[in-house]
Amino acid sequence: MGFRVVVLDEVDEANALIDLFDRALVRDRRHAVALAGHGLADDLKVIAGIAGRRLPGVIGVGFAWADRASKGRNMARMVDTCHDLAPTTAGHIDVSLEGGAAVTAPPSARGADRIAEASLIRCLAIALTAAWHMGIYRWDGIFSVRTAAAANAWDRFVLA
Predict the structure, then answer these.
(1) Which parts of the chain are beta strand (E)?
(2) What is the SS3 assignment for 93?
(3) Which of 19, 59, 61, 91 has the greatest number of beta carbons closer than 10 A?
(4) In sequence order, what are the beta bridge partners of 143?
(5) What's the pLDDT at 89?
């Protein structure tokens, strides 16, 4: 499992972030074992609208996402945790996928750090839920996503 969480410090960095995201989608739809999202089709439409230019990764994943039930040859298996899973699947983690990840950083943390922390926790929750659904990972009890994020991102954030 791999993650990259990037947060804008300045509004003028948006195009660079969109390009980074698009390149990741180009690469990941062919090279990853799985690609997971939570209502990703809506996010892809928003990103395409903001960019106002052709984004090959967004277009390609958007097209494949619409037919994600049939895995194409040499393509990542795609799972939308919002639409493809039974509600009980998410019961194996301690973070709800509904309504976004709660920001738990101390009030003194910078806004970008708070957003990055929430994004990391949400991405990890989506990935673990999808991995559980696909039978890639199994564990006993409830997996603490916040504890895992804190243990692995202690040098980046002050996670509560």
Answers:
(1) 34-37, 77-80
(2) strand
(3) 61
(4) 93
(5) 60
User: Quick one: CA torsion of 102, 32, 142, 86, rounded to 10 degrees?
Assistant: 90
DSSP string, 116-153: HHHHHHHHHHHHHHHHHHHTS---SS-B-HHHHHHHHS
Condensed to tens digits (0 to 9), the pLDDT of residues 42-71 reads 999 999 998 989 999 999 999 999 998 887
How many percent of the chain have pLDDT more than 90? 32
Output the furthest CA–CA distance in the chain (Å, rounded): 48
pTM listed for this prediction? 0.79
Q: Which residues pair with 59 in a beta bridge?
A: none
CA distance 144 to 158: 16
CA dist., res. 60 & res. 72, Å (int): 12
Q: 134 CB contacts (<8 Å, ≥6 apart)?
A: 34, 77, 79
Classify residue 2 as exposed, middle or buried by CB count within 10 Å of its CB (0-12, 13-18, 19+): exposed
